Records
---
Amino acid sequence: MQNSESEDEMDSPDGPGSSHIPPTIYVIKFHQGTAREAVEWLIERIEAKNKYGGAELLVRCEPQKQGQEFSVRDLDQFLYPGQTLDMVLTPAEREYCVRHQLEALRAKQEEGHVPGHPSASLFPGQSIIGVYLAEGLITDMLPIHDRQALDILSSQWYKAIYQGAPFGKSGLPPTPLPLPPRTEEGGSEGSQDNIKDKPRHDPSPYTEKIRAYFGEAVAMYFSFLGFYTMALLLPAALGLLQLVLSVDTLTEHALFAAFNLIWVTILLELWKRQCAGLSYGWGTLDRQYQLQATRPNYLGRMIQNPITGRYEPTYPAWKTKSKLYMVSAPAVSVCVVLALWVMVGAFWAEEQLVDWRRSYGSIAGVFTHVPSAFYAALVWLMNYYYKKLATALTDWENHRTQSEYDWHRVSKLVIFEFVNNFSSLFYIAFYIQDTDMLCSQVATMLIVTQMINHFQEALLPYVVKKAYAQFETQVLIQLREHPLTAKLFEEAVRPVNNCPLEEEPVPVLALDAKDPRITQAKEEADLDPYLDTYDDYLEMFVQFGYVFLFSSVYPMAAFWAVLNNILELKTDAFKLCRVFRRPRVKKVGSIGVWQGAFELLGCVAVMTNCALLCLSPRVRTLAPAASSVEWVLLFVLLEHIIIAAKVALMWLVPNQPLWVRQALEKITYQSKLALKNERGKKTRRHLSRRFRSVHGMPRSGSRSRGTTPVAQNGGVRHRSPHRSDY
């Protein structure tokens, strides 16, 4: 960084010194009532050196007004001459590093509260950013897109017709790969001397470019979506072949169902191996075994961690488990039962209207579809409020790590979503026992519902945002003044609301008023946040159920799923690049709890398909004399045989490829060898020091007889006996 600017730089539209700083990575928006001392203190901590507890980042602001936004940028440091930050870190890694530095700002022993806000207490080791967010001093904190890199990625991602080909010269920073460990011969595992040990995993450029910009979590989702779509091609081809050849016999349906049930196990086991290869290449394979930090929102009594030595919040585990099993589990059960009652009520009302139509004619028939429409609206409404309830319950349970929090939150949501989406199909299949109605319902929900989802999640928000931007100010004024909607805009009463507005500007360098960074920050702050990949995985989970739960009834489900997923790849990419804010980078080593959810759904699919075959009238005609007990025994036998085959496949197929296992074993061996060598060196140094302290150093030119150990050159050796001693 230079201390002065030329006249050209002073007059540039980007403002003085703008050419010397990298693009904006993070924006922090303070509440207009935040005390000036609190803002200055946080900026000092952000700009301070790491050894003094700071984040060592560069801060600039727009021309200051009340309610100011600050942009935080990382500083080009520790680089060799001729290097730039773009050559070292990807956009995802820069965002992750800056956020990590901000979240790592911890309160010191002497800092009891936030300056200017005595009610905002600070404990030693507590996250400063977390306190600012919890107290409302910071109203928003978001990462900013790298427009140049995003435009290049967009043009070769969702705008491209075929995205399986390599990206080519995209201009994105190269993805840094972990250096291979050194071998005993001094080479590396990836060198020509050890080419036989080189991993055979070569992730597609398509996945690597997504990871380089959005991080591992988003890249893992798109990798799973692509892998799952490719795996569906074979069932889709069989279903299409059955439709073209007009094959509709019992044997073909039974064989197709059996094939699907075995194929789903092969699919999930092969994905585990693919996932292991990806996470090993990304350096996140053993992330679940590493020591995880506490969540920023984790509450508890501040106690020094015996492992890290830091002061961290501590909460009794028995309290978390008590809340989980005594409150959260019953609440989820009540919601599930309520969803079932709503579904049964909708079917009952529809049956009543059908009976009325038979009795009173076409007048009552007008209202036949009202229960279905009302039930669809209730399903959406229950999903919306249940998601809020599940999040609130998981927050209240107070889990220590982010992985525990995500697991329990997703588990609650998956249970309810399963009941809400599939209960009507189970009701038709096993209570009404209408195969034609079940086939029609599966086709409708798979095709129509998912097409609506594409429009709702990607195109509708984009169109509404574009139209709403034209008259946003007038609408907000009318809503704030209207007595029915005014309460929706009232802020929660906090100490920060009672603070007077600061008139003096904060002493921090400002950007030029025409700087495009300011416009970009304001535009992206108005976008909806992209919280995580939960909704995307949920879509695949529901589709997975439609394809495999009732495959014996509707073999064409896989074909429509493939067409949907091809469109899904485009719409999900579009919404990430254009509709939502830039997501925060998250390091993951797998798809998490969704792997278990898909495997559980595969086991449920065995029971549903076996039951459908045993209840089929065409199957019953093969053995008309068989009793109900015999049919139940046949169902149990078929179900046990297929589940045994699935378990055998899971046991026979390793979760990790051979090259990953060998690489991990080699790293473990080299780590043990390095530890052994280090201990040997320490032992030799220790014995050498002890010998010198007991016997002293030998004089120059002296000869020692016998086998007395002699210290020489810092080592210990035994002198051979003299010839006269024999």
Note: DSSP finds 22 helices and ten strands in the chain.
---
Amino acid sequence: MMWLRTLLLLGLVGRLLDECSGHSSEDEDYYMQELLSREHYQRVSENGAAPTPATGKQPKTRSAASKPAGGSDSAPVKSGSKKSEKNKKAVKGSSGGDALISESSDCPPLGLETLKIDDFQLHASSMRHYGLGPHRGRLNIQGGLYEDDLFDGGWCAGRNDPLQWFEVDARRLMKFTGVVTQGRSSLWSSDWVSSYKVLLSNDSHSWVTLKNGSRDLIFSANREKEIPVLNVFPKPVVARYIRINPRSWYASGGICMRVEIMGCPMPDPNNYYRRRNEVTTTDNLDFRHHSYKEMRQLMKVVNEMCPNITRIYNIGKSYNGQKLYAIEISDNPGEHELGEPEFRYTAGSHGNEVLGRELLLLLMQFMCQEYLSGNTRIRRLVDQTRIHLLPSINPDGYEKASEMGSELSGWSLGRWSQDGLDIHHNFPDLNSVLWEAEARKWVPRKFHNHHVPVPDWYRSTNATVAVETRALVSWMEKIPFVLGGNLQGGELVVTFPFDRTRSVTVLREATPTADDHVFRWLAFSYASTHRLMTHASRRVCHTDDFAKEDGTINGASWHTAAGSMNDFSYLHTNCFELSMYVGCDKFPHETELPEEWENNRESLLVFMEQVHRGIKGVVRDVQGKGIANAIIAVEGINHDIRTASDGDYWRLLNPGEYRVMVRAEGFSVSSKVCTVGYDIGASRCDFVLGRSNLSRIKEIMQKYNKQPISTRQRLRQRRLLDT
């Protein structure tokens, strides 16, 4: 012990000198951390407790059971085939600390999928090429469209033999409890590992193989490449490094894996690791995953806490009959106020993209608490905006994903509605309708450049339209939304319309709207205030480095998709809609929720505030009555909007001067120059329209039951008189 204390003293002195000179060696810090941890556990072992392997009961998991591999030395394997257990709080996310986790609790993932484990912590015996290096061996990582590029879908060994290994350096002592594996993500190849051994080390030189008695423990792994398989260790094991040694693999493929490691951090005596790498939150919110029943109960709790500013309602039902609940947050819930814009956030159109659902549940809690505490920013937002939050568009899909749990739901389980439809891309394709009208020179005389009507076939009962989509369309038509965002997952980027390319044969092509500059600003307002989206040094989630584009991209530039919610909203209503991909991990472990909340909280608020950018006003007649359905046209922008039922309107615009023209049936055209400033707060621009001469003549004729005589009728009467 004396030599260890001497080393510690020398190390601390060296560290102080480094700090005084302005330099810090990470390797030295990690070494000091390991020494301190080892000394702690050496003391524990001297008191009679063996530090490695850790003893205790087998941890419970939210996975499903499957058959074990053959032989007495095989370990049980768990994959997607049975309902999971109820949600359990292993570590409460809001605590933000390194709480000790009991042996019977779940351990969270280390963070290969969420990128908390960086590329330098992943190593391998060999690799086929750089695009299949160990840095690509992350659970659920997606490969590109083309093989053998820099962004392939997994780690693949350079040789197919039992000497290959994949290694993770946790950079601290961990209590490892299990391993989750997948095969390689590829459209063209089939590669996966069917069994493996697990080795552990504290120094990366001396390795110990997990054993079943005296024999090496061999874990059964994957039988195909996409479904994740969890193997839970018989007993948790304490170490810093963990290796996976493939023993068998698909005969027609090779050694390829995507991996997640389950483990709990051991006590951190000098609080080093948390100080450098963890994000904590001070918000007292319910950081956990919520079932449908728990979601409904939480919304009810928020409503009871803030009854004067909230209202719960539903927009319809899912295929399985679950109500699609929304919560309204406003100073006068339940009614549209003249001049107050309507904003919406939606989430969960893909049921397995769970993070957006939880962020909206956290947002409604946060806004209620902050409003009650007198937060001026939140009070101003609530008093001046009618906000709608719809956290779960696809509750049926969510139930499928949640049964498997955060690590075993894979990339696509629960994505679609119960009847197999992608809700986000299930809207009518109005792009092709508008573009065809433009090609025939019908716009604007015969065909409007806005409020494009929904085709009759789409509204028929036998059309292939999800009931959830029909509910959304009805909701979007009923409320005059100005701005909206739909939260999705699996990436870190904000996309804006159009989502479909003009050319059917082109998969990726920039296809801007007439309001492209406005959309780019709206997208940047979210991305730039997100903690990670525009971070230049952050690792790409899968294949695209969106940080180079300021964390934003035109939807069609990424991949073309017809009938998106964003395009429909822009072309059929006044609402500008964008998609926020809020995290690389679609279904993060609940211990990740506090950090994800911190990543997105400011962005969620800033984007809501953008609804007050541009111009607003009321269009009235000379008697002061609001004119509904009046067309608001901005010179130079080939996309108009319309007034709401009370005659009020909101037009999102970037700072500048604009000539605005207003026209309505039966009224003369009016125009004026409106100025938009740089400060948040829409500029007021009201209009008063007088009756047109033609409309006055029609009114007089109708009043006295006299019909106007057409020119042709007059000519006929003259001819009769002449004869």
Note: Residues 1-105 have pLDDT under 50 and may be disordered.
